[in-house]
Specification:
By secondary structure, the chain is mainly α. The protein contains 3 helices and no strands. The longest helix has 39 residues.
């Protein structure tokens, strides 16, 4: 499926990059007044859905990274308790 078709297919969940690109395209069309008033509500609604999707993906990724780093800290040997002497 060509990239453009993939971005406009609304039945599948887009990747973060695809969602972000679609939001940017919608914003660019809004700024250039290229969206007809009859399409405006649908396009804004789509942008909100995509932004929410991006936020969810970012939050999920942040939690995963926190879990990974916590696991790394647990696996690290404890530091020595000062100089022996």
């Amino acid at each position: 499926m060509p990239a453009k078709d993939k971005l406009t297919t609304r039945d599948e969940t887009p990747s973060f990059g695809e969602a972000l690109a679609e939001v940017e395209a919608i914003l660019a069309r809004l700024e250039k007044d290229e969206i007809d008033v009859d399409e405006l509500s649908g396009e804004v609604k789509r942008a909100v859905v995509l932004v929410d999707l991006c936020r969810e993906k970012l939050q999920r990724t942040e939690l995963e990274v926190q879990e990974f780093t916590a696991r790394l800290r647990e696996d690290r040997p404890a530091p020595a308790e000062g100089p022996a002497g």
